[in-house]
Amino acid sequence: MWHQSTLTLPAFPRGFHLVTRHVLDAIPQVRELKAGLLHVFIQHTSASLTINENADPDVRTDFETAMNHAVPEDLDYVHTIEGPDDMPAHVKASMLGSSVSIPIRNGEPALGTWQGIYLCEHRNHGGRRSLVLTLCGE
Predict the structure, then answer these.
(1) Which H/E stretch holds residue 98?
(2) Closest CA to 128 of 16, 60, 47
(3) Quick one: pLDDT band at residue 68, thresholds 50, 70, 90?
(4) How many domains does the chain have?
(5) Distance of CA 57 to CAs 18, 22, 53, 78, Å?
(6) What's residue 107's pLDDT?
(7) Which domain holds residue 61?
(8) Which of 101, 105, 100, 99 is nearest to 36 (CA)?
């Protein structure tokens, strides 16, 4: 079975946001699979996706702090037409990536106990974000 749908997330503020429930609610066909793969792709260049700890909210704060340290906004960027947070957002998005793949086992995502899917919003006002969800399996 193959299934594909698009999910439009609400606008989130800059930072790291757990969106696991948004994703799974948007593709209920996951429950029909014994074994499969869910691929989640973000259609933007200034936000990204990652999988990481979903239990302690401090992790989200520390992610933002670390990314801002690694990719500061005050570098001498050439691409500045969309504001000072745009080019750093592109760099952060490239570092973290535009997709994640999650194995499906017995109708459930086979995430680890403390894992969740994050939308990494790198813009101060990024707006709504679109995800393409592709599911395959049996």
Answers:
(1) none
(2) 47
(3) very high
(4) 1
(5) 10, 18, 9, 35
(6) 98
(7) 2-137
(8) 105
Q: Please give the full DSSP string across 6-52, using - where no structure is assigned.
A: EEEEPP--SEEEE-HHHHHHH-GGGGG-SEEEEEEEE--SSEEEEEE
Binned at pLDDT 50, 70 and 90, residue 32 comes out as very high
CA–CA gap between residue 94 and residue 90 (Å, rounded): 6
Give me the half-sphere count of Cα atoms (radius 13 Å) on the Cβ side of residue 105: 5
H-run or E-run covering 88: helix 86-96
Measure the CA–CA gap between 133 and 41, rounded to whole angstroms: 7
37-63: pLDDT as tens digits: 999 999 999 999 999 999 999 999 999
CATH number at residue 109: 2.60.120.460
Q: State the residue for tokens 């395959």.
A: 136
67 pLDDT band (50/70/90 cuts)?
Answer: very high
**pLDDT score, position 61:** 97
